[in-house]
Amino acid sequence: MDEIAHVRLSSVVLPLRTPISDAKVLTGRQRPMTEVVFLFAEITTAGGHEGIGFSYSKRAGGPGQFAHAQEIAPVLIGEDPSDIGRLWTKLSWAGASVGRSGLATQAIAAFDVCLWDLKARRAGLSVAKLLGAHRDSVRTYNTSGGFLHTPVEQVIENAKASVASGIGGIKLKVGQPDWRTDIARVTAVREALGEDVPLMVDANQQWDRATAMRMGRVLEEFGLVWIEEPLDAYDAQGHADLARSLDTPIATGEMLTSVAEHVRLIDLGASDIVQPDAPRVGGITQFQKLAAYAEHRQLDLAPHFAMEIHLHLAAAYPLEPWVEHFDWLEPLFEESLVTNGGRMRVSERPGLGITLTGQARAWTVATAECGKLP
Ligand SMILES: [Mg+2]
């Protein structure tokens, strides 16, 4: 039996080229986003095997995730890295008083993703293959180009460049104070791209129930792939009413921070497309439980953010999923993901297939370690 010998944690602050605004900024709930904070976990075993995993936070929470991870990391030393399910539970019990969702769970996610990467690397397989892949590429859509701070002419230019680069779908942010601005932007983009490009919109939770229903009806004519987060992330009943009333599929789930929270929404029929985020729900172990539950309900899957992880998980989902393309994380990793023909390819590199760049090391603001390198 191999055992975990050393754990290294890094807090990495990734600056964004432009401050990012979605509907939460336009309604005054949040400030524009200028950076994303990553929690990286790197594990080395006595036998010399290595893994890397990460979690992240936006706007606040980075130092909290790091501090929680630092406190619970020592319980991994000496453990068999293959016992990922048992280790998830052990990490959860180590911090049980702060609960099984939210920031505590997100800190555990960095370790969990790392252990899956380690196991897959040792097997010489991609994480997708280790889990049991259904495909070697996944439909992908672009989010980075359609934010609300971007003028519509630029959105169209971004969208065309994106499609030309092999990313099939285009997502636009909506939820502006004047709904006519949203419709004008969707109309302009649809006209510029034509009927064949898959188009989605994302309201980032900023509509009330009446507005969401009205907007959903107005948007039906655009043949959208989905309407994302039309309502507050925890308004399961409101989402369920929309999902039943509209032809356009409803997608939600990115804000939820545990499998239990997702199960509540799924049980109420709140979405046609579930959008879990592995770092937010506790890592790959928890994501897989949720994926099994969603598949049982014949729901579609479109994981949120972190394509470097979610590409593998989407490839292992039985129903044809989508993966969200964000170029923001590219400076962190030596490898880049390949897109063509509207699909993102799962690489044959073992594990997640990622290694940190020197730039990522340079953006590191805090590190902690426990155990001894072999
Ligand atoms: Mg979203």
TrEMBL record:
Query: Which cofactors?
Result: Mg(2+)
Positions of the Mandelate racemase/muconate lactonizing enzyme C-terminal domain: 152-249
Coiled-coil parts of chain: none
Q: Which InterPro entries match?
A: Enolase-like_C_sf, Enolase-like_N, Enolase_C-like, L-talarate_dehydratase, Mandel_Rmase/mucon_lact_enz_CS, Mandelate_racemase_C, Mandelate_racemase_N_dom, RHMD-like
Could you list the residue ranges that cross the membrane? none
Q: Does this entry carry the keyword Isomerase?
A: no
Q: Its domain of life?
A: Bacteria
Record-linked Pfam families: MR_MLE_C, MR_MLE_N
Cite the entry's keywords alphabetically: Magnesium, Metal-binding
Q: Which NCBIfam families match?
A: TalGalacDh
Protein name per the record? L-talarate/galactarate dehydratase
| Organism of this sequence | Kineosporia mesophila
